[in-house]
Design goal:
Blueprint (H helix, E strand, L loop, with lengths): L17 H4 L13 H7 L10 H4 L9 H7 L8 H15 L7 E9 L4 E6 L4 E3 L5 H13 L7 H12 L3 H13 L5 H12 L23 E3 H12 L6 H9 L18 E8 L3 E11 L5 E12 L6 H27 L3
Antiparallel strand pairs: 1-2, 1-7, 3-4, 5-6, 6-7
């Protein structure tokens, strides 16, 4: 059964376990409207609002973020996208393209209808890998807004290295800066900052380690729903330096939701962050699809594949599982295409 975000307890959507129980293209990164002006406006101080909601001629919710999730329209009990994804993953398991010791999580949320289109294993914490890096950036920007840390041109370049190029040394640099603001370790201060400022978003997030040598980070965790709640707040400019975070996550990179996803239209814009280790392949982001009526239709997409043991051939495993995420991303786009008459 697919649960929806009307639950009164501590989770917006409970895990849906049916699937797991069975065991750059720079051309698409044309900047969002107004992004060029943002570069100059956001250099070293507070960032003016860059409201995608306003550009969509839609107002953001006038109530709290948590209430918005709990009042979002639930997906149908028999959800065609969920059925299609589960069937696809099942067939991949039968052919060995997804192993028995691998679990997956998927979440798609449509901003236009304010509806979860699928949420499979969405509340389970999985390894974050590099998908934790926007969270580190957010914790840092809280410290900047509170006057504890500066945001200089040097740090801006390091931030771009962390998000666009997924540079691990840049990530550890910002974790070390967070450490300077507290007697706690850098990872502990990052998690405390996020959960203190946004208790409703980072419910399943655990940040406990720097990025180790070789990038073998397996202990930081988050759920698909945590990523979605972060992206939802980002879209509606409810986070400090939201515009700068959007810019950083929109910089050209090789993603798994658009690049190589043949079913996703080339006009689609992407704000995302990938994550990869020998045990984790994932991507989380906002895709802004174009309608034939000229309107834009944003939605979040989160795809996670986690392996119980490290893959023997890391490169081959990473590429193969990245392609699985691209396949599901194409399925999600096709579903929204039917809903909104996308190009």
């Amino acid at each position: 059964m697919l649960f929806h975000p009307t639950c009164p307890d501590t989770s917006d959507i409970e895990s849906y376990d049916a699937e797991s129980c069975s065991l750059t293209d720079p051309s698409r990164r044309t900047f969002l409207t107004g992004i060029g002006a943002l570069l100059a406006a956001t250099a070293f101080s507070s960032v003016p609002s860059f409201s995608e909601a306003a550009q969509l001629n839609r107002k953001p919710p006038d109530h709290s973020l948590i209430r918005d999730f709990r009042t979002a329209r639930p997906a149908p009990r028999v959800n065609p996208l969920t059925v299609n994804i589960e069937s696809h993953i099942k067939s991949l398991r039968q052919t060995g393209q997804v192993a028995a010791n691998e679990q997956t999580a998927w979440l798609v949320y449509d901003f236009t209808t304010r509806q979860y289109l699928t949420a499979i294993n969405a509340n389970r914490p999985y390894q974050s890998a590099s998908m934790v890096k926007p969270f580190i950036a957010l914790a840092f920007f809280h410290k900047v807004r509170e006057g504890q840390l500066p945001y200089t041109s040097f740090q801006r370049n390091r931030m771009e290295a962390m998000i666009q190029r997924s540079d691990n040394s840049a990530t550890n640099y910002f974790i070390a800066l967070l450490n300077r603001t507290s007697r706690r370790s850098g990872p502990a201060e990052a998690e405390r900052t996020l959960k203190q400022r946004h208790p409703g978003i980072f419910r399943n997030t655990r940040i406990v380690e720097h990025i180790p040598s070789g990038g073998r980070t397996y202990r930081n965790k988050a759920s698909a729903l945590d990523y979605h709640r972060f992206l939802h707040a980002l879209w509606y400019d409810q986070l400090p330096y939201s515009a700068e975070l959007k810019r950083l996550m929109h910089l050209p990179n090789r993603d798994r939701v658009y690049s190589g996803a043949r079913g996703v239209a080339r006009q689609t814009q992407v704000i995302d962050k990938t994550g990869t280790t020998a045990q984790l392949c994932g991507d989380m982001g906002i895709l802004i699809a174009q309608g034939r009526n000229g309107r834009r239709y944003p939605y979040t997409f989160v795809g996670i594949i986690e392996k119980a043991r490290s893959a023997g051939n890391y490169g081959a495993w990473k590429d193969a599982r990245g392609n699985v995420i691209r396949q599901v991303s194409s399925m999600a786009y096709a579903h929204l295409q039917r809903m909104h008459n996308l190009v």
